[in-house]
Each structure stands twice: as C-alpha cells, then as structure tokens.
Design a protein that fits this description.
single chain; 5 helices; two-stranded antiparallel sheet; 97 residues; mainly alpha
C-alpha cells in the first residue's frame, strides 16, 4: 500500500527492510521484541520492519470494520503515524495490538 504517493518504506526505512523480512508473515517473538526495542530508541528502520510485518493484517482488519479500502487505508495510515510518534513511550506489551 502506498500512502500519500510514497511507499511506507520511503517514510519509515530503507530498502534493507524488504530483504530482512522472511517469507512468512509471522515473525518470532524475539525478532519483534528486538525491533520494538530498537524502534523505541529511535531506529526508523526497525519501525519500518514492524510496519511491514503487521501492515497487511492491519489493513485487512480496518477494511472489515470500515467496509471501504480508502477508509481502511486512511485509518491504517493515521494509526501508523500515531504509533511512530508514541513509539518512545511504548512499554511492555504486544506491538500487534
């Protein structure tokens, strides 16, 4: 999905994010925990990895709730912006939620 004419990677991290993603959509808890901690410390590449790991699931859920692709894309974009801004305050919990 593209937001405001740019790919999410253009906003949150470099091309290496694509290369670091495994073939499955499910990431190990250890990988996620490591990326969450790095993102909390300001690493935008780690946040990009988290976004790419969970974006599809978030988009599907938003579309089920909002019933249109455009509204779902807007909701996911807004949620990602808020998550990025608040990342330094994220405490133990499930990033997926």
């Amino acid at each position: 999905m593209t937001y405001a004419g740019t790919s999410i990677l253009d906003t949150y991290g470099p091309e290496w994010v694509w290369e670091s993603l495994p073939n499955s959509n499910l990431q190990s808890n250890h990988q996620v925990d490591a990326m969450v901690e790095a993102a909390r410390q300001g690493d935008d590449r780690a946040f990009g990895w988290l976004v790419e790991s969970y974006r599809t699931t978030a988009e599907r859920l938003a579309q089920q709730i909002l019933h249109t692709e455009e509204a779902a894309a807007d909701a996911v974009q807004e949620a990602l912006i808020k998550a990025h801004r608040a990342m330094s305050r994220f405490q133990d919990g499930n990033f997926r939620s």
